[in-house]
Amino acid sequence: MRRDDAEYMAALDEIVEILRRWAREGRTDGWYKSLSEELKAKEHNVHYRGPIISFLLGDACRRDSQGLEPMLSAIVILKATGRPAGQFFELANRAPFHRTAADWTWEQERARVFARYCEG
Predict the structure, then answer these.
(1) Using alpha carbons only, what angle is made at residue 111 by residues 74 and 47, rounded to the nearest 5 degrees?
(2) In sequence order, which ranges of 42-103 are alpha helices (DSSP H)?
(3) Residue 14: phi, psi to the nearest 5?
């Protein structure tokens, strides 16, 4: 799988749908490994520790938000820490998101995702 090829774009479509469903469900156990397993069940072999998952999550955020809306991948966390991986925070600091530690926390971002998508 290569970024922007047909297989990648199909996986991107799927990851956006999975994350939106997780957000609607208010899931706080959305681990990278769980995401990888759901993608694999849909015939997208994306390892949870590989670079492709980071690219997909970044592209999912950019597809779902023009910068002001919450970052969809804020709900994907490492099982060991209960927080997103470092790549999430790097993405948050760059365009179009421009989140800074002075006025932003990951927990606030996650709450905004849930508020945007939750069914209840």
Answers:
(1) 20
(2) 51-64, 86-93
(3) -65, -45
Cβ–Cβ < 8 Å for 77, 32: yes
CA 116 to chain CA mean position, Å: 14
Q: Rounded CA gap, 65 and 57, in Å?
A: 12
Tokens of 24: 């609607």
pLDDT tens string for the chain (120 positions)? Answer: 888 899 999 999 999 999 999 999 999 899 999 999 999 999 999 999 989 999 999 999 999 998 889 999 999 999 999 999 999 999 999 999 999 888 899 999 999 999 999 865
pTM for this predicted structure: 0.93
